[in-house]
Amino acid sequence: MGDTSLFATEHARGRAAYRLYACTILAGICLILYYRATHIPATWREGRGEWIGLSLAELWHAFYWVITQSARWKLVYRRTFKDKLSQRYEGRLPNVDIFVCTADPYAEPPNLVVSTVLSLMAYNYPPEKLSVYLSDDGGSILTFYAMWEASQFAKHWIPFCKRYKLEPRAPAAYFSSSDSSSDLSHHEECLSMKILYEEMTSRVDAIVKSGKVPEELKANHKGFSQWKSEMTSKKHPPIVQILIDGKDLNALDNVGNALPTFVYMAREKNPKYHHNFKAGAMNSLLRVSSVISNGPMILNVDCDMYSNNSDSIRDALCFFLDEEKGCDIAFVQYPQNYNNMTKNDTYGNSLSVMNEVDLCGFDSWGGPPYIGTGCFHRRESLCGIKHTKDYKEDWNRGSERNPPDDIRKLEEKAESLATCTYELNTLWGHEVGLKYGIAVEDVMTGLMIQCRGWKSIYYNPPQKGFLGVGPTTLAQTILQHKRWGEGNLQIFLSKYCTFIYGHGKIKLALQMAYCINTLWAANSVPTLYYVIVPSLSLLRGISLFPKMTSPWFIPFSYVMVGKQTYSLIEALLTREITVHGWWNLQRMWLIKRLTSYLYATLATLLKNLGVSKMGFIISAKISGEDASKRYEQEIMEFDASSLTLAIIEFVALLNLACLVCATSRAVMMGWAIVLDMYFLQILLCGLVVAINVAIYEGLLLRKDKGSIPWSVTLTTLGFVMLVSLVSRV
C-alpha cells in the first residue's frame, strides 16, 4: 500500500552550517559582555555612566538575538498533494465559509473590496459548498451597493474564470497584469468582460463620489430599504442581506451553473457598547455564518488581500483532511504578501525574510502564529474547543440545509446574533471566538488555540496564495508598525506572555519564537541609546569600545560584521530582496525602532498604567497621485507627523555632526591615533550617516511636497546644536 499522506514535510538544508555560525556569534557576544563587565571606567567623568548604559543595551540586544535563534535553528517546508485529495474526497468536500472585513468606504475603496470578493467567489471549488461573507463595520449603503454590483457581475466573471482557468481571479489584478495582453486578451469575450468590469467600477466610483445611492437603484434589491436617514457608521442596527443564496436552485450564473452564497453583514453599532474592532466583526461573522452555511472550515482575508491562487482551498484541505497528521491542525496560515512593492522596497514592507525564514522556523516547533489574514481555520478551534485524542471533526456540517421559504426570516435570525448586547455576560471574546482587548487580536487568538492542544501549519506555495496592498508612504508604514508593536508588547506584558501562559502547553522554542514579535517594541529604547550616546561620546573624547590594537577589538568587529553579512545573505536568498532593497530595509529597521516601536512602548506603558485606552486606526489603502508617483520612483515620502520627522532628523543630523567632529579631530591629532582610539565609534556613527542619506536628500536637496518641511528642520537643527553643546560641558 502506497503513501496515503496528503502533504509532506521537508527540512531545510544547510542548518548545520548556520548553527556553527550562530555558535561563533554567541561566543563573540559572550566575550563582548565579559569585556563590558571587566573594563568599566573608574570615574563618571571617564564615561562610567555611558559605559553602563551601553552595556545594558548590548545585554538586551544579546538576549533578543538569542530569542531570534528559535526561528532559525530549524526550518521546515510543506508540500501538498492535491491529486490525492481529489481522488479521495472530491465528492464529499466540506463546506467552506470565507470572511472578509471592511470598515470605511473611503479608506478602503469599495472597488478594492469588490475585486477581493470576486476572486474568492471564483475559487476552483464546488460553488454550492462555498459561502462568502462581507462584514461592513461602517454599515455603509455605499459598500452594500458595491456588493450588490459584485453579486451581479459574479454571474459573468466566475464562469469566465473557470472556462479559461485564469490566474489571478481578482478582475482588477488580472486586467492590469501582463496576462491581459496575452492571446486571451484579444478574444472577443475577454474584451467584453473587461468592458463590463470597467462599467461596473465606474458606476461604483460614481456612487461613492456622490455619497448616496439614487432612489431608482434602490429598487434593485430589498436590502437598500434597511438604511434609514438617521443611521451613521457609529450607530446603526444589525443588517444581514443574503445577496446570493447558493442553496437556491435558481441562483445560477449566465451559463447555468450554481453560484456560491454571498452575504452582506453590518453588525449593530452603538456608542454605549464597545464594538471590539475587527475581533468583534469576526465573532459576529462566526455566529451569523453558523445559521446560514455553518461550514466546518473558515477562511478569513483582509478586504485588500485578493486570492492569487484558485487552488488555495484545496491546498489547505490537504492538511486538514490528512488521516494521520490532520486531526490536530487548527489553522493553516499563508504568508502575507503584497503586489505593490517596488523593486527595492523603499519602506521595507515586503516581509520577505519573515515569510521565507521566520515563519518556517515557527512551523518547526508547533506552528506559526495566526496573522489575521490568509488563514484557514477549523471552525470548532476558533469557537474555543480544546483538542483531545478523542476529538473527531464532522466535515459534513452545513451541507444539509434546505433553502428557506422566506429568506428574510433567516436574515432576521442572523441579525439577532449580530446585536451589541448578544455577547454580554458570555464567553465571546474571552474563551470563544477571537480575543478582545489586544490590538493584535489575531496573534493572541492563535496563541490561545495552540495552548488548547491544537497545532498550526505554515504553507508558502510557489504561487502565492494571497496578494494585498502594502503601505506606500512613511506615515502608513509607521502607523502599521506602531499598531503591531503595541499589540504584541501588550501580550508580553500581560498574563498571556508566552513564557507564562504557554508554559507546559507549547514548546519552549515556540514560546521564544513568539517573543520575536512581542518584543519588537522593546527594542526601541536600547536602539535609541546605541545610535545617540556613542556618537555624543565622540564629541567629548570618550572611548566606549576597545582600541583597534586591543585583542578585544576582534569579538566586537566579528559580531558587527558577521551579523550584517548574514543578514544580507539571508535577504538575498529569499530572491525577492536586492542589495539596494536590503539597505533600504536597514534604514527602515532603524526608523521603525526610533518611531513606531518607541511610540508603541510608550502607549503600552500608559495603557497599563490606566492613563490611556486602546484605539484602532484603519490604514488607508490609497495615496494621493503625487505621492503614488514618488513611491513608484522609490523616493521617500516624508508625510509623517512633525514629532516623527523630528526624531528621525535628530538622529541623522546628530550623527552627521559627530562624524564631522571626529574627522576634524583626526585631521588635527593624526588619523592613526584617532582611529586606534575611536574606530568602532566612528564606524557606528558613519553607518548611521550612510543609512540616512535619503533623509539628508529630503532635508536639503528635494523641493517636492514629499520633502521634510523646513520648520521641522530648523527646530531639529537647533535642538541638535543644544544637545551637542550641553554634552561637551
What's this entry about, in short?
This protein has 729 residues and is of the alpha/beta class. It has helices spanning 15-38, 48-68, 82-89, 110-121, 141-164, 171-176, 188-210, 215-218, 277-292, 312-320, 352-364, 379-382, 407-415, 441-450, 474-492, 498-501, 508-518, 524-540, 553-573, 579-594, 596-608, 625-632, 642-669, 671-691, 693-701, 710-727; strands spanning 7-11, 76-80, 96-102, 130-136, 239-244, 261-266, 297-302, 306-307, 329-333, 337-338, 375-378, 455-458, 466-468.
Structure description:
This protein is an alpha/beta fold. It is 50% helix and 9% strand. The protein has helices at 15-38, 48-68, 82-89, 110-121, 141-164, 171-176, 188-210, 215-218, 277-292, 312-320, 352-364, 379-382, 407-415, 441-450, 474-492, 498-501, 508-518, 524-540, 553-573, 579-594, 596-608, 625-632, 642-669, 671-691, 693-701, 710-727; strands at residues 7-11, 76-80, 96-102, 130-136, 239-244, 261-266, 297-302, 306-307, 329-333, 337-338, 375-378, 455-458, 466-468. The strands form three sheets. The chain has an eight-stranded mixed beta sheet, sandwiched between helices. Strands 8-13-10 form a three-stranded mixed beta sheet. Strands 1-2 form a two-stranded antiparallel sheet. Helix 20 (579-594) runs parallel beside helix 21 (596-608). The chain is globular, with a radius of gyration of 28 Å. The chain starts with 6 loop residues before the first strand and ends with a helix. The model has no long low-confidence stretch (mean pLDDT 93).
